[in-house]
């Protein structure tokens, strides 16, 4: 089932990119992002092994709760609440409308908890343009594969677009203009989370 597959796939991708995320966070933060997320998604994989939840909704809620209780730092509660809110609109069959609604809920959760706006050099700078692009495409009739493809393409561009931004939220904001020229670690991990979802769509 797609939601379980998604959780396992994120765990693999985060493990493979652990050092990259640590390095990105070393440049403009405290070098713990890769470690935090790897710990969190290992716990997610253990949660999935232990709970044979048949419904996507329960799986996403379980992933969110697991992240909140296992990930320190800013990203844990932000990703955790995104998964919990995505659970509210998830269905066992992933449709374009479900995907669009999930992205919209993730944005609402991240903004509700972190109070960031666009262009503050955070993970929101990926979730927001991705949600906008996918929601527009789905309204215009895009199918699931095209929507998921657009999701990862937009995520890539949006993550790269954080490089010239000045961080004004979170720990990186302490460095002010010295954050210019660096990719935001949360933008990079969001790209992995969305890449993993893309791989669950055939
Ligand atoms: P910490 O900054 O506490 O060490 P992490 O290193 O795990 O936490 O996560 C850092 C990432 O969290 C940043 O790269 C940024 O994308 C994201 N982030 C931080 N604060 C916010 C916020 N208020 N809203 C959205 N994202 C945020
Ligand atoms: Mg950090």
Automatic annotation (TrEMBL):
Keyword Transferase included in the entry's annotation: yes
GO biological process: glycerol catabolic process
DhaL domain span: 1-199
Keywords: Kinase, Transferase
GO molecular function list: glycerone kinase activity
Record has Ligase as a keyword: no
Entries under SUPFAM superfamilies matching the protein: DhaL-like (SSF101473)
GO cellular component: cytosol
InterPro entries per UniProt: DhaK_L_YcgS (IPR012737), DhaL_dom (IPR004007), DhaL_dom_sf (IPR036117), Dihydroxyacetone_Kinase (IPR050861)
Highest taxon in the source lineage: Bacteria
NCBIfam families cross-referenced by the UniProt entry: dha_L_ycgS
Protein name: Dihydroxyacetone kinase DhaL subunit
């Amino acid at each position: 089932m797609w939601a379980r597959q998604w959780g396992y796939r994120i765990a693999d991708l985060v493990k493979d990119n652990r050092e990259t995320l640590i390095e990105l966070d070393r440049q403009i933060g405290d070098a713990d992002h890769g470690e935090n997320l790897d710990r969190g998604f290992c716990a997610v994989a253990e949660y999935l092994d232990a709970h044979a939840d048949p419904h996507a909704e329960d799986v996403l809620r379980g992933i969110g709760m697991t992240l909140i209780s296992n990930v320190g730092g800013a990203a844990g509660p932000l990703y955790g609440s995104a998964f919990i809110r995505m659970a509210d609109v998830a269905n066992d069959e992933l449709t374009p409308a479900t995907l669009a609604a999930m992205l919209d809920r993730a944005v609402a959760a991240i903004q509700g908890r972190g109070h960031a706006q666009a262009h503050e050099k955070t993970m929101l700078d990926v979730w927001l343009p991705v949600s906008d692009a996918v929601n527009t495409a789905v309204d215009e009739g895009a199918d699931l594969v095209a929507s998921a493809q657009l999701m990862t393409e937009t995520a890539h561009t949006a993550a790269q677009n954080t490089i010239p931004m000045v961080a004004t939220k979170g720990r990186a904001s302490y460095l002010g203009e010295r954050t210019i020229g660096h990719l935001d670690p949360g933008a990079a991990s969001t790209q992995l989370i969305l890449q993993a979802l893309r791989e669950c769509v055939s």
